[in-house]
C-alpha cells in the first residue's frame, strides 16, 4: 500500500492523515468543507511541532510529513489510484452509506474501504457496496498520533486477506491493532459506554457527587480520568447516541441511557465542546470546576 485517502478532516481525520503521512504514505485528505481542510493542515503542523520539540521527530521529518499530504474537496479527484480509503466523516449513518456507495463507484477495484466509525455497523456499510469483502473498520482512538490502539472490525463479509492486510498496515503505523467482530459498540464502546452510563446513574440516584465518583474511579481503579469527565470530553451527545445503538442493537434494557444524560443533551449541555457538562470549562483556564447544577 502506498497511497491512502482520508475522508473527513475533523478531529479524527486530521490525526489519521498525520499518522499515515508521517510513516511515508502519500495521503489525499478529502473534506466537503475547505475551511475544515485548512484547519486540519494547521492542526497537523502544530502537532508535528510538538513532536519536534519533544525530540520525537526532526524538522526534516516534519517537512516530509507535510509534503506527503494533498487536500481535496472533490472525492473523485482525491481517490484516484488509492490503495486504501479511511472514512472519518461525521457520525451519521446516511452520510456514511452515501460516501461508501460513491467510493465503491469511484475507487479502483483493489481498493480497501475502511471506516473509523465508533458505532455504525461495518456489515451494513459493506452491504451498500459491491465489495463487502474489502470493507472493514479501522477504529482509531483520539488523539490519533498519541493513542496506540486500532480496533480492527471485521464485518460479516470482510475477507481474511483484507483483515490481515489491515492488521499488518496498522503495525507499520506503529500502532497495536486488535481484531474484533462486528456487533454493536464493537469492544471499546460496548465496555466503556455502560461504565459511563452507570457513573451517570450513580450521580442521578445521589449515591455520590461528580468529583466523588470521578475520584473513586481515578484513585481506586487507576483510570487516568474519571468517567464523568471522560464523558464530557467525548461529548455527551456522542455518548447518548452510542448508548442508543447498544440499546437498540441488543434489545437489552441494561443499555438504556440514563434520563439525566438525555436531559443534559436536550438542554445543550454536551460537555467540554459546549463549555459545560458535568464540569464547567472556561477557555484559557486550567481550572475545571463541577457544573453549578451539580453543586449541593
Ligand atoms: N472524536 C472522537 O473522539 C472519535 C473517536 C473515534 C472515532 N470517531 C469517529 O470518527 C468519525 C469522525 O469523527 P470526528 O470527531 O473527527 O468528527 P468531526 O465532526 O470533527 O469531523 C467530521 C468531518 O467530516 C466532514 N464531512 C462530513 N460529510 C462529509 C462528506 N460527505 N465527505 C467528506 N467530508 C465530510 C465534515 O466537514 C467534518 O470536517 C466519526 O465516525 C466518529 O464516530 C470519533
Q: Report the sheet with the most strands, covering strand number, pairing sense and barrel closure.
A: 8 strands, mixed
The CATH top-level class label of the largest domain: Alpha Beta
**Spatial gap, N to C terminus:** 57 Å
Mean pLDDT: 97
**What ligand molecules are bound, each kind once?**
nicotinamide-adenine-dinucleotide
Could you name the ranges where pLDDT drops below 50 across 5 or more consecutive residues? none
Please indicate the percent range of residues in DSSP E strands (runs of 2 or more).
Answer: 15-25%
Lateral arrangement of strands in the main beta sheet: 3-2-1-4-5-6-7-8
Structural class: alpha/beta
GO molecular function, one term: 3-hydroxybutyryl-CoA dehydrogenase activity
Family: Belongs to the 3-hydroxyacyl-CoA dehydrogenase family.
Protein name: 3-hydroxybutyryl-CoA dehydrogenase
EC number: 1.1.1.157
Descriptive report:
- This protein is 47% helix and 16% strand.
- With 296 residues, it is of the alpha/beta class.
- It folds into two domains: 3-181, Rossmann fold; 188-290, N-(1-d-carboxylethyl)-l-norvaline Dehydrogenase, domain 2, CATH 1.10.1040.50.
- Strands 3-2-1-4-5-6-7-8 form an eight-stranded mixed sheet, sandwiched between helices. It has a two-stranded antiparallel ribbon with strand order 9-10.
- β6 and β7 form a beta hairpin.
- α1 crosses α2 (34-53) and α8 (188-204) packs across α10.
- The longest helix has 20 residues, at 34-53.
- The radius of gyration is 20 Å and the shape is globular.
- It binds nicotinamide-adenine-dinucleotide (NAD).
- The site of nicotinamide-adenine-dinucleotide (NAD) has 22 residues, from α1 and α5.
- It is an enzyme of class 1 (oxidoreductase).
- Residues 3-182 form the 3-hydroxyacyl-CoA dehydrogenase NAD binding domain.
- Its EC number is 1.1.1.157.
- It holds the Pfam family 3HCDH_N.
- Belongs to the 3-hydroxyacyl-CoA dehydrogenase family.
